[in-house]
Write a structure and sequence with these properties.
The protein is mainly alpha-helical and 308 residues long. It has 14 helices and no strands.
Length: 308
């Protein structure tokens, strides 16, 4: 292998590990958002809460949009930003609704149907290879969510339906974001998401508006800060590694959500949640171990090669 090929392979391996690291951090940040939204409850309408969160987030990320002043985006790229803002805005509204009405673990578990759509979409639209270990990790993680939800055995509430509708919309948003990372900076991508979601949620927020309390504004401000950071780290993960690598890592968020629901909100210690969470942890641990091994094989020459 030539020196140039060695360098390229080494960069690919480092990118894979960096993508995994960024994705783990993303799960921590997003589950923190879940905690805040759960704390707010259903007193404030879902679309209004989502609008305030993104409106505040937009103010925070305005400096990130400065490059657009000097280098305007092409019309088709602007169309991608608009499409992402629309689908993500509707998905967030549905997610806020679900979070206030069903247990955290169930919301998160249903949300992990999204990686199925994302992984398939990455293969269909971006030509990413579906290695067997990646397919297995996604399917095993999804099996864990089915153990938690027990479809057909538990009551299906409006919150479940809202989250089921949100999952494919989030997947569309993630796929568009992956495409944008090819020539757009993470900061601009995050900033345009905040702008698009704010505009999408504005009409619904006006229809149900009621004066928010100072406490609600404070929590939604914190939610905006943490969520914006999460979208930034998510974009970095997308840029560093293929979606088929990063998506299985996202299953860790389910584990954090189940623990928070039990410890902080007194949600029942459901043995199915523990079993399903264990399956999810196993799938994430396996994919991370395999990808780390692959990266080491790329970056470290075999013993025979060192001797020559």
């Amino acid at each position: 292998m030539s020196a140039t090929a060695d360098a390229a392979a080494g960069q690919a391996g480092e990118g894979t590990l960096a993508g995994i690291g960024w994705m783990v951090l993303t799960t921590v940040l997003f589950v923190s958002v879940t905690l805040i939204v759960r704390h707010l409850g259903s007193d404030i309408p879902a679309v209004q809460a989502a609008f305030i969160r993104y409106g505040i987030g937009l103010v925070m990320v305005l400096p990130m949009l400065h490059p657009l002043v000097t280098q305007p985006v092409r019309p088709w790229v602007l169309g991608l930003y608009a499409a992402r803002g629309l689908v993500h805005g509707v998905a967030v509204m549905l997610w806020f609704y679900a979070m206030a009405r069903i247990p955290i673990a169930e919301v998160t578990a249903i949300g992990y149907t999204a990686p199925i759509y994302v992984t398939l979409g990455a293969a269909l639209f971006y030509g990413e290879r579906l290695h067997l270990r990646r397919i297995a990790a996604v399917l095993i993680g999804f099996a864990g969510t089915l153990v938690i939800l027990r479809p057909g055995l538990a009551e299906i509430a409006p919150g479940h339906l809202a989250q089921l509708a949100a999952a494919p919309l989030f997947a569309c948003s993630f796929l568009i974001a992956k495409g944008l990372t090819r020539d757009q900076s993470p900061g601009v991508i995050v900033g345009m998401l905040s702008l698009g979601c704010t505009l999408t949620l504005l009409p619904g927020a006006i229809m149900v508006w009621r004066p928010p309390t100072l406490d609600e504004i404070a929590w939604l401000t914190l939610c905006a800060a943490v969520a914006t950071a999460g979208h930034y780290t998510l974009t970095r993960a997308f840029r560093a590694a293929p979606l088929t690598v990063t998506q299985p890592i996202g299953f860790l968020q389910l584990v954090w959500a189940a623990i928070l629901g039990i410890v902080l909100f007194g949600e029942a210690l459901d043995p199915f949640v523990l079993v399903g969470g264990g399956i999810v942890v196993a799938s994430v641990t396996y994919i991370s171990h395999r990808e780390a091994q692959a990266a080491r094989r790329i970056t470290t020459p075999p013993a025979a090669a060192i001797k020559h």
